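thought: fold this chain, then report.
action: predict
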Amino acid sequence: MNATLDTLRAWSEAGWLRRLDSALADFVAELDPRASPALLVATALLAHMEGRGHTCLPLAPLVREPGAVLGWPQEAQGALQDFWATLPRGLPDWLAALEASPVVRHAAQDADSGQPLVLGGSLQAPLLYLRRYWGYETHVAHALAERTAAPLPVDEVLVRQWLDRLFAPAAGTAPPARGVDWQKLACAVALRSRLAVITGGPGTGKTYTAARLLALLVAMDPQPERLRVALAAPTGKAAARLKQSIDAALESLQQRVGADLDLHAFTQRMGAARTLHALLGARPDTRAFRHDAAHPLDVDVLIVDEASMVHLEMMAALLDALPPGARVVFLGDKDQLASVEAGAVLGDLCRDAEAGRYGAETARFARVAAGEVLPPEYLDTSGTAPALAQHTVMLRESRRFGGPIGQLALAVNRGDALGARRALADDATQSLQALEGVAPDAVVHLALHGRPGAPASYRDYLACMARGAEGAQEHADWALGVLAAFERFRLLCAVREGAWGAAGLNQAVEAALRGAGLLGARGEWYAGRPVMVTRNDAALGVFNGDIGIVLPAPGGGLRVYFADGPQLRSVGVARLAHVETAFAMTVHKSQGSEFEHAVLVLPPRAGAVLGRELVYTGITRARQAFTLAAAQPGLLAQAVAQRTQRASGLRGRLDAGDNVV
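observation:
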């Protein structure tokens, strides 16, 4: 045992494991002095995989080919293989070693006695969990199974009348070419669902569809004035954008429906969108929320945008806090990066989205209630169509991403490196550019000067800031203008640390702006510093991921100003303890945001960090221009070829009807 623990500690010293990973193995050894080497290794690697976003450790592929599962650097592979030769050879022996320990609960056989590790999955595909994540996955699987067990009853004739009206072509426009109107279908599906998933890429109209769903709910409710609706997203930026998009769509719909629906009053009652932490009532220094099953949310309908960012723990808390009869609608792009924390819940939920797999009853409902005939390729004739698929709709037509940026994003999403290279090379509009084999200085130059075809840079917000303002209202308008100008451009990084990471580029850009005379005072807090909040603080009304800018306050001193759509809020700099400079940010942190010009920075030797989902997410943050800045040629092709897979047992449990305990 001591030799195994020494090896795990050495791997932590080498940086192949975290210290936390080997420490968990030490803890298990204290609880079980007879712990086998296989158990100790599995424990450390389970913690390691959780830190990389996996909710469990798949044992069969680990035993068979540990190097492929772990993806460690080349210098670690030899040591890994040498050590692996001292461990049990086959999966049955590994399972026997785990099941023999009192710290491991076999979920299908053993009582819950507080064991820190849980062995789940199936005999052919066993999965090892930390107790906490087993609990989250169990709760989510049960909640999803309950919410998708049977559709809600609806008046199909009335639904059809309203959907035809809400989706009628605008006056003076030609009817669209006839095919499946997936947005219309999504509204119909969500109307009769206590849980619905609407997925699609940028510009496919997810919030446009959600607004029409809300109008449909108002139309179908005999007491619409009592309908309680909440809007939420993982970040403040995404929540503000959701509210703006919903409000604009409902305003447009009001003109179409006239006096038959009072959508103005409905919009006022709905109130502002909130972060998920604010919605659930985050408590300082605890993982618990104010709202849970005993204290449910006061909602009839909850719409959650940017659902790809919702990790497993948050999904469990959210479903726990929903009243049993409430509807929840998840909006998100299944192809974006998964959450920073463990879990890829939207990806698990959307596994059948592209194929459809709609059963006969769903096809009948689509035809009668929405007037949509589903093509045979989207039907499941097996008689065992997955329950979740009947509550999921993928929007397939992008109205915004048809140009060069859209073509690049599609090529990356298909895994077509040659097509991506062709899109970058053949763009005559200059909206796309690739800078490969460059130094970080080239990225800093883009931040200060932009480039031909994409002039947006950080000079924009600093020029706006330099104009200043007098008077309360003028100051507020000025601050909003500075914030809007800052959102035109952003550096997006694959990693945090190093010269190519967000931390290194933040320092380099700040130094370059000072050298150019565009930033003044030095020190931690200075006018013009963009900051990102890194920890939720409900008392201050700021949440992880919120971005603001330090500006002089009307009464003197410095405050950090944040924009929530057209609304402005500010916090004194002395009260913000958990922020970091935000000239550059990770792609993960950029989700839910869009920029006129986005620069994706790919570092050398990033290994498993570079994947297709990261590149796709970075590209789709750009509205008008996208620049790829790569330290080495070939990094784009490497990333496009590498698909990010997160280990999870959620989908298997849903496929089994939640019969897998």
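thought: worth noting. The chain has a mean pLDDT of 88.
final: tokens above.
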